[in-house]
Amino acid sequence: MIGGPDQMRGSTLLAVDGVSVSLSGREVLHDVTFGIEAGEFTGLIGSNGAGKTTLLRVILGLVAATSGRVLIGGRAASRQNPLIGYVPQKIALDPDMPLRARDLVGLGLDGHRFGIPRPSAARNALIDEMLDAVDATRFADVRIGNLSGGEQQRILIAHALISRPRLLLLDEPLANLDIRSEQEVVALVSRIATDQHVAVLISAHDVNPLLPVMDRVVYVAAGRVASGTTNQVVCTEALSRLYGHQVDVIHVRDRVLVVAAREDVAVHGGRDAAVGLA
Amino acid sequence: MTELALLGPVFEPGFFSNPPVQRALMVGGVVAVVSGVVGTFTVVRGQSFAGHALADIGTAGGSAAFLLGISPLYGFVAMNLVAAGVMELIGIRRPRGRDVATGIVLGAALGLAALFLYLDTTTTSTTGATINVLFGSIFELSASMVPIITVFALTAVGVVVVLYRPLLLSSLSPDLAAARGVPLRVVGIGYLFALAIAVSLSAVTIGAILSTALLVGPAATALRLTKRTGLAMVLAATVGVAATWIGILLAYDSYYWPPTHQGWPVSFFVVTLVLVFYLAAQLPSPRRSRAPDGQPAARTA
Q1: How far is B295 from chain A (nearest CA, A)?
Q2: Under 8 Å CB-to-CB from A193, ≥6 apart: which residues?
């Protein structure tokens, strides 16, 4: 269940192979290995500071691995990778930002180019199609800063997907969302991944919202990962080995609670587990 | 004839035939357009402090140029370009690093400005230098400066037009822009250079101290009125030009005002008008309000 070289097959879309990363002399990721096949939905689970964002930044080519390698579609990670669509962690969108939702989606097509975009019917049609795909047509002309958190996530997802990537990276898209928006975003990402045959790697600190839709889990703790199917990874045995001490995985109705025996280790899924019990 | 008679109290004699006034209208208009276009991104990127700091820093260059007997504009532009480069070099990654870097450069430059302004005053035995540098000299621009100002203006607007999309993307999220291959440093420094030129241009017209008002005020007004970036830039330019032209008219007219018949400074009128436009844009409009359920009103429109 700990990902190994056996996953590095020809059809593998993303191959992370023995990647270690040190930032300012501190090892943030240690010997991380896992793979993602085309169209797969993978959850990247771990508490704050576990190394999830760093791992995503390595895949994006924004941070260089100290050792190991990352291949996307068989090629080394680099910036401006057309195979990757990216939704960064919480963007502070100012209410006065003079940008409509549809303008932000359009920047997903050509935001890196110089000059002013030329209006074209083809460009507008693509934007409308993508807005429709994320159910955002009704607020397409609203200022992005005036949208709710869940609505902004939809627009950022459309922004990431309009250039037709094969792999969608989402960094904590469920943070700061209420439970209903959380479920909506998860359902939307899952549906789009299937419709457009896009593989998804979505980071979250809680595994529960992703349980119904995940094909695989990459669990990060203190810079190390365990990967495999949900049942393989989210169990007492695997997580205890990952954390290096006793961790209990308790199933409560449709939810799981990860409980550390030691008091100094954070309890995952606390908020949602509590809701699940209510 | 009757129309002219009606306009008499508005346009005092000679307003349209006076060469310094014609020049002020033209240069003031050009500078207001540059300030509006560049200022829109200054507000969006949260760099108002950097903009104001550049204006203050530029006074060291402007006062040095005065001392050398050349146009303060050259001093402003040279000093501001150097300052923009230094600010970028010292550290612009984090907002706090940016503020600290700006503050350090600002302090050093103001010290120089104090020295040069003192020397300006003592060597020329006039206080005109200080007033010119700090509060502008739009009626005293020589005709030879007009083409130079135009070239600087086109350069600044050109940079913003070329960098338009990467600037927008990096203003929204540096990570998002970097992942798409936007060269953040190139875009950041390119924009700072455009800002340095815009601030220099408004320093020689309405003055170093007041140039922030022309940079930030019309842009902030425009952001209240439109949700489209391109349109915001056009609106900001329009508001700036309106404030500048009406300000020049009022300053000219003020020579005829009782009791003293001494002209009031243009800068005062321009800045006051910018403030009036900004406050007017803050007035609630039914179109911008939100429906009671907290959803944006446009949703139900």
Answers
A1: 8
A2: A39, A41, A168, A199, A200
Contact criterion met (CB < 8 Å) for A88 and B173? yes
C-alpha span between A83 and B249 (Å, rounded):
58
Provide, as residue numbers in chain A, all residues whose Cβ is less than 8 Å from the Cβ of B220.
Answer: 96
CB within 8 Å: A138 and B231: no
In chain B, what percentage of residues exceed pLDDT 90?
A: 40
How far B271 CA sits from the closest chain A CA (Å)?
A: 22
Using one digit for the tens of pLDDT, what is the confidence trace for B255-289? 887 777 777 888 899 999 999 999 999 887 655 44
Task: Give chain A's domain count.
Answer: 1
Partner residue facing B179 (CB), from A60, A98, A141 = A60
For residue A139, give how far its alpha carbon lies from the nearest alpha carbon of chain B (Å). Answer: 6
B17-210: CATH, from 1.10.3470.10, 2.40.50.140, 3.30.70.20, 3.30.450.20: 1.10.3470.10
Question: Angle formed by the axes of helices B19-44 and B211-225, to 10°?
Answer: 60
The complex's ipTM works out to 0.80
What is the distance between the alpha carbons of residues B33 and B153, in angstroms, rounded to a whole number?
Answer: 8
- Structural domain harbouring A257: 5-277
Of A48, A52, A79, A58, the residue nearest A16 (C-alpha)? A58
Q: What confidence tens digit (pLDDT) does each residue in A214-268 have?
A: 999 999 988 888 999 888 888 888 888 888 888 888 888 888 888 876 555 455 5
Kindly indicate the confidence band of residue A5, based on its pLDDT and cuts at 50, 70 and 90: very low
Domain coordinates of chain B in residue numbers?
17-210
Q: What is the mean pLDDT of residues A60-79?
A: 91
Residue A233 distance to chain B (closest CA, Å): 30
Please state, in angstroms and rounded to a whole number, the distance separating the CA atoms of residues B225 and B282.
9
For the stretch A17-40, pLDDT in tens is 999 999 888 899 999 999 999 999
Question: CB distance from A86 to chain B under 8 Å?
Answer: yes
Strand partners, A34: A16
- The CATH number given to whatever domain includes residue A213 is 3.40.50.300
Distance of CA A201 to the CA centre of its chain: 4
Residue B235 three-state SS: helix
**Sheet architecture: strand order including A167-170:** A84-87, A167-170, A199-204, A41-45, A216-221, A224-228
Pairing of strands A224-228, A67-72: unpaired
Q: How far is CA A195 from the centre of its chain?
A: 18
CB contacts, 8 Å: B162 with chain A:
114-115
Q: What six digits make up the tokens of B49?
A: 């402090």
Contact (Cβ atoms closer than 8 angstroms) between residue A129 and residue A136:
no
Of A88, A110, A147, the CB nearest to B176: A88
Q: Does A146 touch chain B (CB under 8 A)?
A: yes
Radius of gyration in angstroms for the set of CA atoms belonging to chain A, rounded to a whole number: 19
- B residues 250..289 contacting A (CB < 8 A): none
pTM over 0.95: no
DSSP secondary-structure letter at B93? Answer: S
